[in-house]
Design brief:
mainly alpha, 94% helix, single chain
Length: 33
């Protein structure tokens, strides 16, 4: 059960990290234009 909760927390962090990275990439691309 602890493994499952740890996995879900890690998954949420990964999604948050990916979304923040995508936002920074979009802002970087708009800066290049």
């Amino acid at each position: 059960m602890s493994k499952v909760s740890l996995y879900t927390i890690d998954h949420k962090i990964n999604i948050r990290f990916l979304s923040s990275t995508a936002k920074s990439m979009v802002s970087f691309c708009s800066m290049l234009k």
